[in-house]
């Protein structure tokens, strides 16, 4: 895992206090291991200030470390990347929503029609006529960001889970249009607004370094507690839209849907980080349980194989009702609940224009 120190502004996760106690009590009627886990969470809480924050904030780092040489990309990340251009003050820039399926397949009635869409943003300068694509994605593909490598020479699971932003000149219209979307969503009325966005992207790219596939919620109902948010290509697009709206970009009113991969669970229990779980003082049984959980899943997968692994996970969580989540380079236990896992393609509306900042 990266050794980057946490950013000064990052919100530290504080271990759970008394609510853990309540959970432990509730777990009494269930399997003994669950009770033990609840106790474990509680023990970790002892002495720590109790403040629960859901969803757990995604941790930001003060810089992006170089990936471990063990992680080797099958496809070079951002092969045609170029620096973000500086736009002229009087330029007007069109902003496009770009979306294309990565893979689709049909799996019985359980998961229905699975469709993983990739999201990106396009820009077109009116002054120069040049256009650009900006996207955020995995350095080592989705499988590597979702499942770790179990290396015989290492005790802890090993993750190749970095994700980053890529900016390059050109928009491949055909690629996005074929089975996806290429549509204008906003207008940037002054070049400096784009330049400010570019500064923000640089910062966002340096501090948000790892990819997270799963959104974890208490149930599929509206208003259900969200335990963990994903951090993927669509989240980057949504953050960028929000930033552009804050800077004063004007958005249209069109429907914009995104792929999300959900897990459903009761309140998660904090287990610890790589050192505390897999180090010499860690709980050996727990360490083995986590490795056993990940064993069936191979990280170095194509997207199609990833979907098949997703199906395996689905079976595993139905039978055992457990899931070990890796988030912020720490492990959590999720007591899984029906419907366990789901992929959706739901609307997340475009932002409204924010008029509070002007005169750029
Ligand atoms: C996933 O990581 C492994 C280990 O570095 C690598 O061999 C493999 O090529 C990666 N998979 C993809 C699709 O990049
Ligand atoms: C984001 O970081 C990656 C990895 O360091 C780098 O390759 C890429 O060019 C950066 N993207 C932008 C838009 O700065
Ligand atoms: C982007 O530029 C290319 C090359 O000029 C052009 O073929 C394409 O239609 C443009 N796409 C958009 C969305 O402006
Ligand atoms: C687009 O959809 C058609 C019909 O489903 C399919 O035959 C084709 O392979 C798809 N193209 C891509 C690039 O996914
Ligand atoms: C507009 O942006 C400012 C500054 O970022 C923010 O404080 C404010 O809440 C935003 N207003 C709306 C309506 O989003
Ligand atoms: C892992 O957790 C232990 C115990 O909570 C802590 O002392 C240590 O600093 C953590 N290590 C990292 C790399 O975060
Ligand atoms: C270690 O973890 C296992 C499985 O999670 C649990 O059953 C056991 O009680 C734990 N042992 C200690 C000493 O916490
Ligand atoms: C987009 O999401 C909305 C609600 O979130 C849904 O009603 C609509 O059917 C979705 N559109 C597509 C094309 O799936």
UniProtKB/TrEMBL annotation:
<keyword id="KW-0325">Glycoprotein</keyword>
<dbReference type="GO" id="GO:0007042">
    <property type="term" value="P:lysosomal lumen acidification"/>
</dbReference>
<dbReference type="GO" id="GO:0008474">
    <property type="term" value="F:palmitoyl-(protein) hydrolase activity"/>
</dbReference>
<keyword id="KW-0732">Signal</keyword>
<protein>
    <recommendedName>
        <fullName>Bis(monoacylglycero)phosphate synthase CLN5</fullName>
        <ecNumber>3.1.2.22</ecNumber>
    </recommendedName>
</protein>
<dbReference type="GO" id="GO:0160121">
    <property type="term" value="F:bis(monoacylglycero)phosphate synthase activity"/>
</dbReference>
<dbReference type="Pfam" id="PF15014">
    <property type="entry name" value="CLN5"/>
</dbReference>
<dbReference type="GO" id="GO:0042147">
    <property type="term" value="P:retrograde transport, endosome to Golgi"/>
</dbReference>
<comment type="similarity">
    <text>Belongs to the CLN5 family.</text>
</comment>
<dbReference type="GO" id="GO:0007601">
    <property type="term" value="P:visual perception"/>
</dbReference>
<dbReference type="GO" id="GO:0005765">
    <property type="term" value="C:lysosomal membrane"/>
</dbReference>
<dbReference type="GO" id="GO:0006465">
    <property type="term" value="P:signal peptide processing"/>
</dbReference>
<feature type="signal peptide">
    <location>
        <begin position="1"/>
        <end position="45"/>
    </location>
</feature>
<dbReference type="GO" id="GO:0007420">
    <property type="term" value="P:brain development"/>
</dbReference>
<dbReference type="GO" id="GO:0016798">
    <property type="term" value="F:hydrolase activity, acting on glycosyl bonds"/>
</dbReference>
<dbReference type="GO" id="GO:0005537">
    <property type="term" value="F:D-mannose binding"/>
</dbReference>
<dbReference type="GO" id="GO:0005783">
    <property type="term" value="C:endoplasmic reticulum"/>
</dbReference>
<dbReference type="GO" id="GO:0048471">
    <property type="term" value="C:perinuclear region of cytoplasm"/>
</dbReference>
<comment type="function">
    <text>Exhibits palmitoyl protein thioesterase (S-depalmitoylation) activity in vitro and most likely plays a role in protein S-depalmitoylation.</text>
</comment>
<dbReference type="GO" id="GO:0005794">
    <property type="term" value="C:Golgi apparatus"/>
</dbReference>
<dbReference type="GO" id="GO:0005829">
    <property type="term" value="C:cytosol"/>
</dbReference>
<dbReference type="GO" id="GO:0022008">
    <property type="term" value="P:neurogenesis"/>
</dbReference>
<dbReference type="GO" id="GO:0052816">
    <property type="term" value="F:long-chain fatty acyl-CoA hydrolase activity"/>
</dbReference>
<comment type="function">
    <text>Catalyzes the synthesis of bis(monoacylglycero)phosphate (BMP) via transacylation of 2 molecules of lysophosphatidylglycerol (LPG). BMP also known as lysobisphosphatidic acid plays a key role in the formation of intraluminal vesicles and in maintaining intracellular cholesterol homeostasis. Can use only LPG as the exclusive lysophospholipid acyl donor for base exchange and displays BMP synthase activity towards various LPGs (LPG 14:0, LPG 16:0, LPG 18:0, LPG 18:1) with a higher preference for longer chain lengths.</text>
</comment>
<dbReference type="InterPro" id="IPR026138">
    <property type="entry name" value="CLN5"/>
</dbReference>
<dbReference type="GO" id="GO:0005775">
    <property type="term" value="C:vacuolar lumen"/>
</dbReference>
